[in-house]
Amino acid sequence: MSLRPSSSASRRSFLAAGAATAAHVWVPRSVKGYNAEEVIARLAPSSPMGVGVSKWELDTPALCVDLDRFEANIAKMQAALKRNQLDSRPHAKTHKCAPIAKLQLAAGAIGICAAKVSEAEALMEQGIDKICMTTSNLAPSKIRRAMQLRRKSKDFIQAVDYEPNARDLSEAAKAAGVVADVVIDVAVGTRSGIPAGDGALALAKLVDSLPNLKLRGLLSYDGGAQHITGFATRKERTLKNIEENVRTFEAMKKAGLNTEIFSGGGTGTYNIQHLVPGFTDVQVGSYIFMDMQYLAIGGEDGDPVYRDFASSLTVMATVVNNRFPGRLTTDAGAKALTLNLPHAGVSGEPGMDYNAGSDEFGTITFTEAKKSYQMGDRLELIAPHCDPVVNEYDHIYGIRKDRVEVVWPVTARGHSQ
Ligand SMILES: Cc1ncc(COP(=O)(O)O)c(C=O)c1O
Asked: Which atom of ligand 1 is closest in space to residue 264's alpha carbon?
């Protein structure tokens, strides 16, 4: 699997597809560098400014989402899944942001997924109560915390993939005074989950028999399929990989077990999962933002760029050194963009290669640039991989027509336990 654009020509089209802005942008000569508190103050109805700060005036590195593109992505996903008679249960591991989860629910999502207990806690604290924990919790303290979440919300669902864990969950549910909703995580590939087949069926029967658990169905997420390059291969492998899981789903159904949930899939396979018999909903994450990794997987129409959803997430950075020919240094390094590949894209500058390998600095090399960059000038970057980049920031600036319209907290930032 290659996550790198294969040639400079295709890199150009990735960047064109990903660019949230055109190359010709107004960059103020002397940039104020507003921080989040100042931006929020300027958005207040009482502010004499009356209009949001330009994204080019933000203190950097700053994480921005283009609201027109982001909203269109949500609408497009909902419409596409509806056409294919699937529901969406978007994964909050991508955004970790309660206001975004609320927008997804308002658009018709049946619930939100969470990867970690602390993430689920932070989201529920902010009013997100329909949460499916797609990761099983093995440690007693996490099991207890998960059952506290179930106590707070009847719409909390916990994944399980191990018989002793199911027994522990039932005990913890009893102690919390609840009957906890549970789905069996059935592996597709080797990452997590119980292998499909007799063991998974036995676990489902055990869950069904335990006094304080209620079986709701199964999860089957194929992480390996999401970034397969080329739609035809992606489709073939997705459908092949899940065959055993479908057999397990059917065996559960035949045994009279509850299979009302058969959930999985992501941004790369959202338009394939409806071909899986019995599938109910898709746990899409990255579609709201997109990133350099996803742009590279190719679309159903054979286009090497995946254009089903628009790249909306960018990082604003400042040029801090222009003294060396063919090179620029910025203030956005690994702590702003992570070390994921492919390299970040420089919006409007397809000839630039961006290396975020240094902790605090990004290094750009180029043979041709559209303009000459001065110290203090701004650049807009497309994230290599959206999930871990979001986790580096306290705030996401929601941008419309280049101006900040809203500032969202990254509610569960750093909540990786
Ligand atoms: C269990 C699970 N579901 C859904 C997703 C979302 O996938 P994507 O961002 O590719 O849409 C992920 C991402 O890693 C995941 O781990």
From this structure: 3
Mean pLDDT of all residues in 285-312: 97
Q: Which residue ranges make up each domain of the chain?
A: 8-67+306-409, 70-289
Question: Model confidence over 152-174: pLDDT tens digits?
Answer: 999 999 999 999 999 999 999 99
Average pLDDT, rounded, for the chain:
93
β-strands 378-382, 395-400 pairing: unpaired
Q: Which atom of ligand 1 is nearest to the CA of 227?
A: 10
Residue 326, classed as helix, strand or coil, is: coil
The span from the CA of 375 to the CA of 359, in Å, is 20
Quick check: CB of 266 below 6 Å from ligand 1? yes
Residue-wise pLDDT tens digits, 21-49: 544 455 556 788 999 999 999 887 777 66
State which fold the 70-289 domain adopts: TIM Barrel (3.20.20)
pLDDT tens digits, 177-232: 999 999 999 999 989 999 999 999 999 999 999 999 999 999 999 999 999 999 99
User: Helix, strand or coil for residue 249?
Assistant: helix
Residues whose CB is less than 8 angstroms from the CB of residue 243 and which lie 6 or more positions away in sequence, other chains included: none
Centre of ligand 1 from the C-alpha of residue 256, in Å: 29
Query: Which pLDDT score is estimated for 7?
Result: 53
Structure tokens given for 390: 């979001």
Could you identify the atom of ligand 1 that is nearest to the CA of residue 283?
4
Q: Which long-range contacts (CB under 8 A, 24 or more apart) does 228-233 make?
A: 228/1, 228/268, 228/297, 229/1, 229/2, 229/296, 229/297, 229/298, 230/297, 230/298, 231/298, 231/299, 231/300, 231/302
Q: What is the mean pLDDT of residues 110-120?
A: 98
User: How does pLDDT run across 312-342, given as a tens digit for each residue?
Assistant: 999 999 999 999 999 999 999 999 999 999 9
8-67+306-409 is classed CATH 3.30.365.10: no
Cα–Cα distance, 218 to 203 (Å, whole number): 11
CA of 290 from ligand 1 middle (Å) equals: 12
Which of 219, 226, 228, 391 for mutating ligand 1's site (highest number of atoms within 8 Å of CB)? 226
- The answer to whether the CB of 202 falls within 8 A of the CB of 177 is no
- Of 325, 324, 382, residue with least CA distance to 349: 382
